[in-house]
Give the backbone structure.
Amino acid sequence: RCHNAEPLLFFQPGMDTFVNPTHVFRSAHFTAERDFAPDPAEVTELAWVPIEECLRRIFRGEIVDSFTITALLGHHATRLDPTLHGTASPHSLSSPEPT
């Protein structure tokens, strides 16, 4: 379970075909709800990975999904410039549907 989640950023992953407002939160405080059960079709292990290694994996093409890349780059950016933290707002939540 995640505790004390704080907003990291807001983005629209693909406005070309649909509007999908996405809010990303982060937290450094977790508690286990149950023992980890690996699923070979999805997640085979849990591990803490330093942000620098995550960035290398993005640029090596080992992390490829847009949600994870956006979250990791957002987290890294706010570590470099803490004034960015929590400044993203869902100003486009009321965006018109694409035609």
In short: The two ends are 39 Å apart (CA to CA). Residues 91-99 have pLDDT under 50 and may be disordered. Helices lie at 51-59, 66-80.
